[in-house]
Amino acid sequence: MSSKILEELKHFINGKFEDSENKDRFSFLNPSNNEVIGNIPVGCKEDVDKAVIAANRSFKNLWSKMPISKRSDLIYDISRLIMKYSHELSYIEAINTGIPITQVRAQIERAAENFKFFAEIADKVLGEAYVFDDKFINYAIRQPIGVAALITPWNTPLMLETWKIAPCIATGNTCILKPAEWTPLSANKLALIIHEAGIPEGVLNIVHGIGEVSGAELVAHPGVKLVSFTGETVTGMEIMRNGASTLKRYSMELGGKNPAIVFSDADLKRALDAVVFMAYSLNGERCTSNSRVLIEEKIYDDFIEMIHERIKRIKIGDPLDETTELGPLVRPEHWDRVKKYINIGIEEGAKLVYGGERPERFKSGNYLMPTLFKDCSKEMKIAREEIFGPVLIAMKFRSENEAIDISNDTIYGLTAYIWTKDIERANRIAKELECGMIWINSHSVRDLRTPFGGAKYSGIGREGGRFSFDFYTEWKTIQVALGTHKIPTFGLNR
Ligand code: NAD
Hints:
By secondary structure, this protein is an alpha/beta fold. Helix content is 38%, strand content 22%. It is globular and about 90 Å long. 51% of the residues are buried. The mean pLDDT is 97.
């Protein structure tokens, strides 16, 4: 596939695309061939200042004061427009990320759904009232907080950007999005869509650039009150340090090393479908991926063989090809990182069942075969660290307790998947697993009303449904005397 686009992107500040004060630019690539398909400005302090001023002005003068129903109507329109432009969005997202187009389409639908969902619930998660001794009516309302920095990763750019923008603006905040520098292309199209929907200028601003430069300026800015971050755990730590002196409120969605636990009594056909899909879809660059599969001893060899048979047939190819199941990884640097882990796995003594190499047919681009390791132990680096590529680590367990022990023996705690027909056992295990989200006999099917987020080093806080509103709003309690309750008197005794 040759690259047909060459985009010189700009920041989006106060409703207009603007050049940076900084002349530095950063190139982004087409992962199928690593040709440059565009570049972004590297946002600097001056750009961040301008964006914060615009966002703050819009927050104070207009957006936070607009009736919720009117805000929701506008946000609902973004959802409609995303579907109207879904063809173009899918194309640019696939060409910049390398994710197969059929999977990108599902992400674009989710992007539209994010706006629809938060537009619909915005007026339903408001406040609470308490009558106190019949003498007071005390009520608590949620209010927007101000300017939010939304910092997103490269793996599913548009979906994650909308996952943050939608609840942020539905609650009356304004924002500055810092898209990942490797995959910035769809963000500017989203800006146009949001503009077309009639969202006032300054509500969404985009500052492009490199994390350590542009993202760091944003995080340290005193005018930014909230930081919603999705990305690597170490980056999250750095962001928390940088925002400490301006006391930011954080939502952190970080890395994962998620187990799928497969018992011998499971519906193995369905478990196989799900395990393979959750390990290799989105090119394995998926935070909720079941990157570890824990298999009960008596079906261990058979289930590994079933996975092996299946992944030999995974269709690797151009992300724009409708039949492709596994596309190229996002960047050559990331391909090297994943390959390094594969080499480490071999050195550590894990058995490589399949893959581990560039597929022969693809001389250029960041293609990697679906990879399966077996006979891994929980001490191995490949079983403990997030690889974030199409690499599945298989391990054996003998008992329920051992499965729990292996699952929990990691710094991460994002998701887990349990496969068994014994529903009591599944619920017992679910209680013991140290993670934020668990699916029993299912791959990760999202219910947008439920809290999304991780435990341990996988995150802080939850987003999704009303939990997003907990993050994006501040409670204010207003206490009203209903009559003439007794007030203590001082200074009347002399
Ligand atoms: P990353 O941490 O390298 O970058 C994420 C974003 O942070 C980018 O926009 C980057 O420019 C910015 N950034 C980097 N340094 C910064 C700094 N010092 N200050 C401010 N911003 C900075 O992550 P990535 O490689 O883009 O994404 C992959 C990671 O994201 C994986 O660990 C994956 O598990 C995680 N992820 C988690 C979830 C979740 O919901 N928990 C979802 C998707 C991805």
